[in-house]
Design goal:
This protein has 186 residues and is mainly alpha-helical. It is built from eight helices and no strands.
Length: 186
């Protein structure tokens, strides 16, 4: 078990790529769905829901003090659930609306919580030589696979993104637990 944990800890380049990519990858998938269905308005709604939830989710949770590592994990789980709904987008566009909303929540929560965790956990933030190359390689392979898969099947693309989010969750689960002191009392 400890060996598996060390392997996931060595994959610290994966969160860097996927967290930054969650601002772009769902947009690419949802735009492709819209274009694939002859620019029908109902197929534009998943993309609109993505943007609406991405930009408003932070205002909704700002009222509560939440541990950032927990918020990061929750955002990944929301993204995985969004990908599951995306698997059924060919059955009904309503699943696409839900997928777009959940992926927007995931994207809106993921980047700020990840950035906060990285700011407070300096040992996870040491990107040197090989980690930078692995990060670049993983980003290129992930992007190429995603761009190729979208031409084959939207469902397989959501599956690929969901599986990578599960991998991201596994890597994040090895991060140490700590509390971030509250600086201001609102």
């Amino acid at each position: 078990m400890e060996n598996i944990k060390r392997r996931f800890e060595s994959l610290k380049f994966i969160p860097f790529v996927l967290v930054n990519g969650m601002n772009l990858f769902p947009i690419f998938i949802l735009v492709h769905v819209f274009l694939q269905h002859n620019r029908e308005f109902s197929y534009l709604l998943p993309l609109l829901f993505f943007y609406c939830f991405k930009t408003t989710i932070l205002f909704l949770i700002r009222l509560k003090t939440l541990p950032m590592k927990k918020l990061l994990s929750v955002s990944i789980v929301i993204g995985i659930i969004g990908c599951v709904f995306g698997l059924f987008i060919n059955q009904s566009i309503i699943f696409g609306w839900i997928a777009g909303s959940l992926l927007g929540m995931c994207s809106g929560l993921m980047f700020p919580s990840y950035t906060t965790v990285m700011f407070h956990e300096r040992s996870l933030n040491e990107f040197k030589g090989s980690s930078q190359l692995y990060s670049l390689g993983y980003g290129l392979v992930f992007s190429a696979a995603l761009f190729k898969l979208i031409d084959v099947s939207t469902v397989e693309t959501f599956l690929f993104l969901g599986l990578n989010l599960i991998l991201l969750y596994s890597v994040i689960s090895t991060y140490p637990d700590y509390s971030i002191p509250k600086l201001f009392n609102y």
